[in-house]
Amino acid sequence: RKEVEQDPGPFNVPEGATVAFNCTYSNSASQSFFWYRQDCRKEPKLLMSVYSSGNEDGRFTAQLNRASQYISLLIRDSKLSDSATYLCADAGGTSYGKLTFGQGTILTVHP
Amino acid sequence: DAGVTQSPTHLIKTRGQHVTLRCSPISGHKSVSWYQQVLGQGPQFIFQYYEKEERGRGNFPDRFSARQFPNYSSELNVNALLLGDSALYLCASSLRPNTEAFFGQGTRLTVV
User: Fold this and answer.
1) Are the CB atoms for A66 and A6 separated by under 8 Å?
2) Are B109 and B86 a contacting pair, CB within 8 Å?
3) CB distance A71 to A49 below 8 Å
4) What does the pLDDT read at residue A72?
5) Comparing C-alpha atoms, which of B100, B101, B75 is closest to residue B89?
6) pLDDT at A105 over 80
7) Neighboring chain B residues of A24 at a CB cutoff of 8 Å
């Protein structure tokens, strides 16, 4: 089993739609998680940290479910500019904060 | 404020050659990590340096090495390049380990 798994998609949604991605992780001791956004041929940009209590930033909400070992990202009112690859990262399991990434989920928002 | 800067942005090398990639972290950040990303995959961890010491190493061959300098900038070296080393090499900067990491624009290495 991969350490971090994501549904690669692609997810194709119309503008204004709500879309959710899940990401499962295998290390039950992990405490820190992040969502990154990566545009084509660019670097990953930090989107959100994922806290135990959940985290909301505008149209974006991140949740952590420890019992089932997954994190989620919800995007409300999708914009064309949200089209990108979304990467989840697990920072747990080491003392030095190595990030273990999923393969990414491709989102395309169309008019 | 300058973000993470990497150089060069693009590089073409021949099999068997050696390459050095450079990274300057965000001012005040003391931790630098290196990742390799091939098309269609998430970044894979190579090294992490903090306070000029190697703190973590990923599952990469000994052809890969790195160091961190007193000003916290870092170099990644790859010897005896193989075609399979072609990838986007990303440097990530953070205040210290286990804090939020910010990536540079990457160096796109092509080995021919």
Assistant:
1) no
2) yes
3) no
4) 96
5) B75
6) yes
7) none
Q: Which two tokens stand for residue B20?
A: 């050095």
Instruction: Indicate if the pLDDT at residue A94 is higher than 90.
Output: no
Instruction: Pick the residue of A99, A103, A105, A106 with the most B CBs within 10 A to test the interface with B by mutation.
Output: A99
> What residue spans of chain B are helical by DSSP H?
none
Q: Is the pLDDT of residue B1 over 80?
A: no
Report in angstroms the alpha-carbon separations of B5 from A33, A65, A70, A111.
24, 35, 33, 35
- pLDDT score at A99: 94
Per-residue tokens: B97: 């380990």
Q: What pLDDT is recorded for position A93?
A: 67
Query: Cβ of B43 and A101 within 8 Å?
Result: yes
Each residue of B80-94: pLDDT tens digit? 999 999 999 999 999
Residues 6+ apart with CB under 8 A from A10: A105, A106, A107, A108
User: How big is the CA angle at A61 (ends A55 and A67), to the nearest 5 degrees?
Assistant: 70
User: Confidence band (pLDDT; 50, 70, 90) for A43?
Assistant: very high
The position carrying tokens 């900038």 is B73
Token pair, residue A54, equals: 């959940």
